[in-house]
Amino acid sequence: MGRNLLRDVRKDTSVSTRTLTKKLCKNGLEVSHMTISRYLANYGYKKAILRATSMLTAAYKQKRVEWAQNHLNDDWSLTLFSDETAFQLFRNTVQCWYKKERPIRPMPKDRTKIFA
């Protein structure tokens, strides 16, 4: 059970414990999905949803800073600022197994959202 299970998790970090249970059942070994979860935890694996991060490059970030510095002394009293609320329609809730640092998933700038 051990090495094959760890190899499967390294090969596909988003594999579920129920999928691993079914795979072990096909090989003649009946185990609950909680047992597999405990086994992986004993080997240092954790499971979580990937952290989202923007897809901004370092060059684009630098351009934004330059723009802000160039417009720092502009007259902003005539500019209208408003609050927005965004509702994300399709959210990725796939969990991944990881050992060291929680993985990051880049998020596109133009995700499907509804602004209210």
TrEMBL record:
GO-annotated molecular function: DNA binding
Designated name of the protein: Mitotic spindle assembly checkpoint protein MAD2B isoform X1
Family annotation (InterPro entries): RNaseH_sf, Transposase_Tc1-like
Annotated Transposase Tc1-like domain residues: 3-73
GO biological process: DNA integration; DNA transposition
Upper lineage: Eukaryota, Fungi, Fungi incertae sedis, Mucoromycota, Glomeromycotina
